[in-house]
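In practice, a research group might receive sequence data for several interacting partners and want a quick structural hypothesis before committing to experiments. The following worked case mirrors that situation: the sequences arrive first, and a predicted assembly follows.
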Amino acid sequence: MPNRKAKYVYTPRKQEIPLQSNNTSLFTQVIIAIAVFIFAVTLSGVLSINSMIQTWNQSILGSLTVQIMPVNDADREKAQAETLAYQERAIDYLKNVKGIAKISVLPDSQLQKLIEPWLGDGVDISSLPIPRIIDIKLEPGAKINFVQLAQDLAKASPQASVDNHKLWLNKLIDFADGLKALAMTILFLVITITSGAIFYTTQTSMGMYKDIIEILHTMGAKDAYVAQQYAKRMAFFGLIGGLIGLFLAIPTIFFIASLAQQIKGGIISEAHLSFGDWLLITSLPFEACIISGITAYYTVKKTLQKML
Amino acid sequence: MIAKPNNTPAIIEMNNVGIRYGQGPEILSDIKLSLSKGSFHFLTGKSGAGKTSLLSMMYLAQKPSRGTMSVFGSNINFTNRDNLAMLRRKIGVVFQDFRLLEHLSAFDNVALPLRVCGMDEREVRQRVTELLSWVELDQHMMDMTSTLSGGEKQRIAIARAVINRPELLLADEPTGNVDNDIAPKLMKLFVELNKLGTTVVIATHSEKLITDFKYPILHLQNRALHIRYPSDISSLSRTGGKYA
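A structural hypothesis for the assembly, expressed as C-alpha cells:
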C-alpha cells in the first residue's frame, strides 16, 4: 500500500499550473542570467562613457590651453630663457583679455606627470624641448572670439598657439557616442532576445499544460487568471536569473574597471560609475523580473485568444 | 426538438446547430434544443454519435460550426471571453475521464472552481471539507489524486462539478466507474441538486439508470437529436430496446 500522504505539498492559491517543475523553468533562468550579465556589463560601459564625457565637458568647457613652443637654439640656457620670455609676453597679453578668469602655468611637476607614461619615471624635463603649457579658465558665459584671440596672441608672442579643445574633444565625443550607440544596440538586442525567449518558453509551456489550462477554463477561469500564474512564475524566474546574472556581472565590472585604471594618464581612467549608476545596475534583476512577468502575461493573453 | 415546459426560461437554446472538426463531415446537424431551467435529461446515443461534442458545446468548450446557440440567454457568438468565463462558472461538468489535476490533492481539485471565482480561502476550506465528507473521501482529502482509485477519482470529479452549486450540471458517464452502492448515492445527489433548481444533463450508456430514474432522454442518432419520454422508455425496455 503506497503512502498516499507522503507526497502532498500544499499548492499555493492560484498556482495550479505546475510551472516550477519543468525544464523550461531552468532554461528561462539561464537565459535571463546571461541576458542580465551582458546587460549589466554593457550598461556599466555606457554609464562609464557618459561619466567620461561629462568629466571631459566639465573640465574643458570654459577653459582653453595656450602652448608656448620651445625656442630652438644650440645654447640650451638661452633657448629656455627666450621660451620663458615668450611665456611672460603671452601671459601679459592674456591678462588684458576680457572674459579670462584665471591664468595658470602648468608646473614642471605636472608636465613631468603628463609625459611619464611615454618617457618613464625620472626624466629631467628641463633637458627636453617640450612646450610650456598655460591653462586658462574662462569666466562663465564669456564670449570670446577665439580666432581673433589666436591671431592677437601670435602677434604678442609668436611662439604661442591657442587650443580651445573643441576639435579633439568633438572627435573624442564622436568616438564615445559611437561606442554608446553600439552598447545601446547590444542592450536593445539583449532585451529583444530575452523577451523572445520568454515568449517562446511561455508558449511551449502552454502547449505542455494545454489540458490543465482547458480544465481551468471549463471551471470558469478568465484568461487573466491563467496569465497571472504564468506572469508570477516567469517574474520569479526573471528575478532569480537576474540575481545570478548580476552576481556574475559585478566582479566582471570591477575587473574591467581595474584594467581601465591601469591605463595611467589615459582617458579611460576618467570613466567611473556613480552611486546612481550602481543603483541602476543593481536594479537590473528587478527590471528582469518585471519584463519577464509582463512578457509572459501578454503572451498568455494573446495565445489564449485563439481558444474559445 | 425539446419543448420548454411551463414557460420557464431556457438555460440552453440551440437553433440549427451543426458541428464539424476541421474540413471533415458534420458530427451533428441541425440540432434544435431548448433546455429549460430545472429540467433533468439523460443524453444517450451510440459511441461516436456525438454525445461528447454536444456536451462540449454546452459547457462552452467549443462553438458550433453553424447555427446559433444561447447559454443563460447569451448568444455565445457575441459574448466576449470574460463573459464566457462568467457563464462557465454557472456550469458544473463531470468528465468521463475525470480530468483531475493529478499533481494536486483531492482538496485542491475540488477547491478549483471556488478559487477560480476568487472565493475566500476560509469558505473554500469549509465547503470543500463538507462535500468531500459527503462523498466519503474526507480521509483522502490531502492525498494526491494520482494515488486514488478510479471510483475515488470519479467522486472527486463529481464533487468538483457540484461544489459551486451550478445552475447547469453536465455529466458524462458519472456513475461509470463507481461501486454499485455509491452510484445510487451520486444519482441521489444529482436529483437533489435538480430539486434545488439545477438543470441536469447526464450522458449515459446505463439502461438501469434510464429505467430507474424516469427522466426525458435526449437521444443522438444519425447526427440528429431526438427526445424520448419515460413512457417510450418503458415500452422500449419491454421490447428489449437499447439506447446505447
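Before designing any experiment, note the following. The longest strand of chain B covers residues 10-20. DSSP finds eight helices and ten strands in chain B.
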